Amino acid sequence: MNPLVESANALKLGLFCTNGTGASQTLAPERHTAPSWERSVRTAHAAEAAGFEAVVPFARWKGYPENRPEHPSGMVLDPFTWAAGIAASTERIGVLATSHAPTVHPIVAAKQAATVDLISGGRFALNVVGGWNRPELEMFGAPLREHDERYDHLQEWLQVIRRLWSETEEFDFHGSFFDVVGGVSQPKPAQSRIPIMNAGGSARGMRFAAEHADLCFLIVQSEDEAGVRKQVQGYKDMARSEFGRDVQVWTHTVVVQRDSQAEADAALHRFSVELEDTESVDAWMRLQGANTEVMPPEILAAMRQRMAAGAGGFPLVGTAEGIAERLEMLSTAGIDGALLTWVDYDAGLADFTDGVVPLLQKAGLRT
Ligand SMILES: Cc1cc2nc3c(=O)[nH]c(=O)nc-3n(C[C@H](O)[C@H](O)[C@H](O)COP(=O)(O)O)c2cc1C
């Protein structure tokens, strides 16, 4: 059983970014400066014991600042082999890998995914990304295609993978990007349909996600329920009306849980503003093409803080009660799942499990 699909919890939960140094760009001494396999397994076990549905790695081949190979943003374990290890070390939690289409041939990705699905006994899902970070793709000699074409390429890549997962006869495929002659992949995955996750946010990306993903991943752009509902409903309505599909919508969050709101606000300010990893956030802004000279200073500051805090994740900052209320708001607005990140995953996950999970159960969002 894959809890990503089968779980009856109204609000599903996952761990995010434990295959690297987390999601925050901070110089706080408690940050992770290198990925740790022991911590990856330990936190996956803790999440599984707390009833979480998923553990999701990210895919990154190179850190943000130039010529800084040792920078924490580039310290990332390979998502597929990491997922295989996590799958073998756990029993119930859903396990994902994240894969770039331009860096892995679909025949390789299809077999890797089928293998992890078999290792996990059918608990695997694949997060597919088209790539956006030019230097990491240039390292492969792969072009960073024009934005919408990345999704055309990703679509074809996924089409080949799905045929390899399902077809038992050899097939030829001649597309705009791939030529496959006598394509076949055995053994088949354990699941008849491996769930696909995608975080397309642009108009083209959203359309790709609505058409092809089972789990659409968005960055929440509003603080109020009506705004979040509108954003979530955009994906669900498009999937239903244009493609006859029902999709889950997930988001990622950054959790700062303390005994009082003031303490939580101060903790967030400390690691994401006072101890911001300026070199890293500056590099990220450049890579994103953010025009820092024309952006109003207050918008720029808010954007920097959200990136430094946790890759743009929705802030869950406050007491256990306050965090549970914000998660309830997201759920009421239609969010099906939240991935959680912390600066310190061990302590954060323990506090969240003790303090927030029982409140989510009480609210009927989880059993
Ligand atoms: C939660 C989340 C996780 C993502 N994970 C990755 C990743 O692991 N690797 C990557 O290259 N891009 C990742 N992305 C970037 C997306 O694939 C995509 O480029 C981004 O959301 C912009 O969407 P757009 O291409 O529709 O403009 C992620 C985005 C989000 C919101």
Model description:
The protein is α/β, with parallel strands linked by helices and 367 residues long. The protein has one domain: TIM Barrel (Alpha-Beta Barrel). It has 14 helices and 11 strands. β7, α7 and β8 form a beta-alpha-beta unit. α2 crosses α3 (79-89) and α2 (37-49) runs parallel beside α13. The longest helix is centred in the middle third of the chain and has 20 residues, at 147-166. The mean pLDDT is 97. The structure holds flavin mononucleotide.
Please specify the SSE layout and strand pairing.
Layout: H1 3-6, E1 12-16, H2 37-49, E2 54-56, H3 79-89, E3 94-100, H4 106-120, E4 124-129, H5 134-138, H6 147-166, E5 171-174, E6 179-183, E7 196-198, H7 203-212, E8 215-218, H8 225-243, E9 248-257, H9 261-274, H10 278-288, H11 297-310, E10 314-318, H12 320-332, E11 337-341, H13 345-355, H14 357-362
Parallel strand pairs: 1-2, 1-11, 2-3, 3-4, 4-7, 7-8, 8-9, 9-10, 9-11
Antiparallel strand pairs: 5-6
This protein binds flavin mononucleotide (FMN).
Question: Can you give me a brief rundown of this structure?
Answer:
By secondary structure, the chain is an alpha/beta fold. About 45% of the residues lie in helices and about 15% in strands.
